[in-house]
Amino acid sequence: MLPWRRALRAAGLLCSAGAAPRPGAARRASCGPGERSMWRGAALPAGPDLRHFLRGAAAGEPRAEPEPELGSAAGTGKVYLETYGCQMNVNDTEIAWAILQKNGYVRTKDLGEADVILLVTCSVREKAEQAIWNRLQHLKTLKARRQQAGSPLRIGILGCMAERLKEEILHREKLVDIVAGPDAYRDLPRLLAVAESGQQAANVLLSLDETYADILPVQTSAGGTTAFVSIMRGCDNMCSYCIVPFTRGRERSRPIASILQEVRMLSDQGVKEVTLLGQNVNSFRDMSEVQFQSAAAPALSRGFSTVYKAKPGGLRFSHLLDQVSRIDPEMRIRFTSPHPKDFPDEAIKLSVTLSPDCSSQVLQLIQERHNICKQLHLPAQSGSTRVLEAMRRGYTREAYLELVHHVRESIPGVSLSSDFIAGFCGETEEDHQQTVSLLREVRYNVGFLFAYSMRQKTRAYHRLQDDVPADVKKRRLEELITVFREEAARANEALVGQSQLVLVEGPSKRSASELCGRNDGNIKVIFPDAKAEDAAGCEALVRAQPGDYVLVKVTSASSQTLKGALLCRTTLSRAAACH
What we know:
The chain is 31% helix and 19% strand. The protein is built from 17 helices and 23 strands. It has a 6-stranded parallel sheet with strand order 2-1-3-4-5-6, with helices on both faces. It has a 5-stranded mixed barrel with strand order 17-18-19-23-22. It has a 3-stranded parallel sheet with strand order 7-10-13, sandwiched between helices. Strand 17 (499-507) and strand 18 form a beta hairpin. It is an enzyme of class 2 (transferase).
């Protein structure tokens, strides 16, 4: 056992299958398979700090199925789920619901008839957390009314905010009954059983090996046209502004076999687009196959570095992407979010069977496979090398731009998206203008831009000063958004007159006479809901349905949307053959 893990276990903060916490620990806990704990009024542990994530970790013990426990009988209540934040939270909602459904709970879309309300939360910015506090105030009246009527309502907070603010959530007005961190969803039936007895309960311990690989999420997206598949959890990058390593823990990857099983199931259900999810997908590393555990660590993109040592062994993201793209030629594959460091720029001949240690083949796969979308998310965060260093991003502005040029050379016509933070610690006006100039130079198709929000536990919280005034952050953010929209509009206007392959998602929100979908570059496309020819040669005209692929000739463009005329219904393979 590693020394740091032994120390955590001695302190009662880490449990493995069959192990009990140290007697006299600060909280009362019940630990068993899956590293679980239950809070019943005493102080919760502060959780892992920076050093725990920077030190190496041994592979976790095989996960045992939880044994039945007292008070964990199958549920009979109705559950109402609300999801806030990123796509990972959408997937977490589906995992949580799969677990609850298996234990006898019924899902409802009517808040008024729910016996249990679960909020799957985000903690990446203060605004995201404030939305949850506001929602809890709205639920306070409902809970009081239900209590008076003799029909108790249980409220739970799940996900990242639960991990970060466990004690405050439970203490504030005693409104919340259960708190479950991202690695504790298996424990939800037991926690709900405890809450039913009138006690508050929590499980917020992070795991070194939990990936929910054996749980097939119950898809909740409307129409079933698209789906998210989680391939890994956690993050080891430790960017100085980011709370994710402290709310979702260390990186660990699902076995490829379980991912392929889920994607095949989605294909059988008629899903036409799958997005592979993770905080850092292109550092994927499946260690479940013994024969690949000694494989060499892949190189980083030129000019990039990490705060951790290279990790040898395992099947890499290129192998996964190759295998997933072979399952269904009519299913689009996307992935998010990659880190720019994991796109090595050396050219490697693409073989039929990919080498497990060559993540540099990812760009070649995107270019050569017709069902892997020609779209990449390359989060820059800032255009200033000085700010990037303070953020611990591991690259300079010049290295990032070199990668962008390499990507565009490797994948002609690729659509690029990015993340940017306005007003990070110590950012000067000159730094801000460097970010403005990067937006203009790269000309992204899609952007996600936010003002900096300092988070406790992060390196920035301990080492840096949040010294950019709020009004300056707001002004800089507005400038970044304006510039992004100008350049995105120019990028999208270049598509006017071209035919775009669009996956139909459903009716347009603004007009019942129009349909909407997304093109290969993940840009929204609006077109008339009219009959059109079928490229298969059918004489009768057809009307496009959600899940169909159609060709649309673009007639106008804005920074966020393309509009066009419907040409015909087609297939992904046929469109690729004609291209």
